Amino acid sequence: MINSPDCSVVVITYNDAARLPRAVRSALGQTLRNIEVIISDDGSTDGTDRVARELQREDARVRYLRADVNSGGCGGPRNRGAAAARAPYVMFLDSDDRLPRHACKSMVLEIERTGADFVTGQISRLYEWNGRTKGYYPDLFARRRTVEGIAREPELFLDSFSTNKLYPAELLRRLPFREDLHYEDHVFTTELYCAARRFAVVPWTVYLWHRSQERDETRLSISLSIREMDNVRQRIKAARLSDGILRENGLADLVPQRQRRFLRQDLRVYLNPLPSRDPMWAEEFSALVRPYLEELDPEAFTSVEPLVRVCCGLILNGRADELVVASRSLSGPKAAPRSAVQEDGRTYWGTSPAEKMDITALRMAELPYTAARLRHEAAFTGEGTRVTLTIRTYDPFGVLAANPGWSAFLRFKDHRVLLAPCEQDDGSHLSEATVDLATLRHGRYGPLGFDGRYAPLVEIVRADGRATTDALLVEPAAQPFSARVPGQRVTVMAEGTAAYLRVRWQRRNLLRPVPRLGRIVRGAIRRAGRPEVKLRVYKGLLRIVPPRQDLVLFEADAGAGYTGNPRYVYEELRRRRAPLDMVWSVARNRRNFPADARLVRRMSWRHLWTMARAGYWVDSHGMPLAYPKPARTRYLQTWHGQGIKSVGFNSPDLRADFPGPRAQWRAAVARWDTLVAPSAEFERVFLPSHGYEGPLLRYGSPRCDVLVHGDDEAVRRAKDRLEIPPGRRVLLYAPTYRDRTRSSGRSIRADLDMMAEALAGEWVLILRPHPVERYEVPQHLRHFVRQAGDYPEVNDLMLASDALLTDYSSLMCDYAITGRPMLFLIDDWDEYRAVERGVYHDLPAIAPGPCLTTTEELIEALRDLDEVAASFAAAYIEFRRTWCAREKGHASAKVTDAFFGGVRDRPPTRVTSPVTARRPIRLPAPVAARRPDGSPTPDGPLAPDGPLAPDGPR
Fold it and tell me: Among 204, 302, 564, 872, which residue's beta carbon has the most beta carbons within 10 A?
């Protein structure tokens, strides 16, 4: 190499000839081409020497250093590699891991941009058995920033890796790694944090930490050889040395933070697999760890996960047997304790109160019934195709005693077995069940049978039919039981470190033993179901099959459920007993339809046949794109909301200048024969954004009629299903998604922990994420937060709530009909309007409620909600003028009259669906609607009763 490299990558290796080339090539493949790769071999005795020299011959950027004797750790080879580095910057790489392609370049640019003493970035675990990656403590790396010393962010002690960092070479020569212990990187990074005045943090992944399913523990890395007791000793030694380094450098006040890292991360490494260890191992482990735990500053135990603190308390008290029980609640189903005690409003693990046994923060004793926690421990035996389970149920929070008349069932997916629990002297309940696996039929999975796994559950059903379920814990050492049933092999076994019961089903039909036949059959099925084949067949149907003028195909939100404007048009037609054959298009696994509704699975062959035959399409989003409408079919597009967000060709999916998607959407819009237009403002924004020029129905939105009239039954239904206690106020939290981070859960921007702490006594929060979002409410918040993402009808939630919390969701326009308070949490307003979705309106200028940027502000507003709402009364009236002037409560009837005008009602000989009771909601008086620029809308003071004629030819 003639020129000095920009970065040296030191690859340390020992007896890893098979994986070394992968690591080295990940370094050679960096977009920063001017690098050198130093293979630092710690005295390998396998073929590593040969492989390394071959890599050196292949690329002149590779250098090879070899020690004669293995040092027994990672410090020696790292020091030798750093000493030999010719570049100004150094990164480390273990031979069983990889660097992402841009790691070196991005880190060098960052250190030069910031002038930091070093740069650290996200390290991601890559699970080789499934190819998935998971960031290590992603919150640590959520923001790109420069930190002015570790005292500013002591949470970063959790980042004690040496491999996810870029260092100046001269710094490494001043701070060498220790060579006399394992976990030398923990000690090294503590010294590094003490020496660094400032360092940079980047949010992207800079290191891929491969995790393999090694079964021979002699081949495991040091960090994974956790069964060895010396591994525990080495980790404790590194922790003590790190504490001492902080004290020696005048940072004694940070010692509790560094010790908290030991409790949160290092100790968990041994606690998670503890259930599978024998009692002697648990005793020895506890005796080894106890002295160090006794040294810890009491402050170190604050903000540590309650169950980890419980385990620490059991170690300190020498209760190794109970420690094993508690450790099973750290992962997997996170089981409840066997017993708990409550005193002075606090809840404690075990039978007596103690500071470290406090689990109040988990809120297990305050959960609604359907989320209530019991502990089920089981043993199983098998013979033939029958498996027998003996189940002991613990009720630590008195759930069973508080709900007399309950029944217990053992559930194998959709198969239930009645249990007969018998109460024992210790308060637990003992039951036994025998299940013949050959009788279990998971019929909806087709003739080939079910292929997969699931966890059997114990279901406790109380007298009103409400149920709570929990998984079953089994002995980690329990031998799996396998049985052959017709066409399948079934295995009952323990799974995971917590060891809970799993049942695995494997097909053993004709296609399994004859792989080639199986591939042929599966390939034929795939080819027949390809989108282009279905589209070709559909277009062929259009040429030969005339539409049925009495057949109506309904769809809401691409088949998501029985909701939206199509639902209320459908119900109006049913109320009138219209002589129509009505069918719903439905996505897989959607079950919230009326029992007598006719359903067809979206994009199935039957669905395509129905699309081709239907004389009417009624939809709230878009029938399958690229599928033309039959010539004599009429298409009512009801859409699914209005608001401030950019839509149509202005939305992120379509505003880029790519002709394909834009042309496809333009053709899809051209299929519409009539469009529901809920407001003049909707017309001003929506029509040009979609290029629509057809007829409009200006009666409001059918789905909003119930918001105008009210529905006491819907309120009762929602509060009952969500188990909202009497006397609590209800806040509906319905944020929209972020296009750049959809399905990430990041739209939930309120601090729910802080809200629960401040408001749980007075409020219940209903969380309604956007349908494309993915967010699971943590268990410790379920006493305050009700997950309602899968609640079938959002109107019920709006009617059941006392106030709405949202951000930019179109739900605000519907909710304004209720006249109830609205609050807007828009901490990312500048980003959302400039680089995210984009908006048509300045929300802070028009909002009918306060626009807030912190959870603290939100809590204060909720505490004084009446006064806050009163201060926005004028803005609220103006908001309703813009969006709700046409909502008079008769949109369903008017839209149905206008679109299905030629369809006569059947005589009302009998009522086919109950008419719900309606409760009027007092709203501000309507005033002449105006656009944001002050000009009047076409409606004048009131919306017209008739539809607008087409604006021009289509």
Answer: 564
**Tell me: the pLDDT tens digits for 446-497?**
455 678 899 999 999 999 999 999 999 999 999 999 999 988 899 999 999 9
Tell me the pairing of strands 481-485 and 488-495. Answer: antiparallel
DSSP helix, strand, coil percent of the chain (3-state; round to 5): 35, 20, 40
Q: Measure CA 195 to chain center.
A: 39
Q: How many CA atoms lie within 13 A of 552 on its CB side?
A: 22
Is residue 792 within 8 Å of 562, Cβ to Cβ? yes
Tokens of 834: 């400039």
- Dihedral in degrees, nearest 10, Cα atoms 841, 843, 849, 854: 160
pLDDT of 333 higher than 90: no
How many Cβ atoms from other residues are within 10 Å of residue 15's Cβ? 17
Integer Cα distance of 662 and 655 in angstroms? 8
Cβ atoms of 374 and 408 closer than 8 Å: no
Q: How far apart are CA 895 and CA 572, in angstroms?
A: 10
For 795, phi then psi, to 5°, come to -60, -40
Region 268-281: mean pLDDT is 93
Give me the chain's average pLDDT, please: 90
pLDDT in tens, 297-325: 999 999 899 999 999 999 999 999 999 99
Segment 827-835 long-range contacts (CB within 8 Å, at least 24 positions apart): 827/749, 827/852, 827/853, 827/854, 828/738, 828/749, 829/853, 832/738, 832/807, 832/808
Identify the three-state secondary structure at position 652. coil
CB 459 within 8 A of CB 416: yes
Contact 189, 79 (CB under 8 A): no
The β-bridge partners of 174 are: none
Tell me what pLDDT residue 937 has: 39
d(CA 312, CA 317): 9
**Cα–Cα dist 89/83, whole Å:** 12
> Of all residues in the chain, what percent carry a pLDDT higher than 70?
90
Structure tokens that stand for 241 in this block = 């040395």
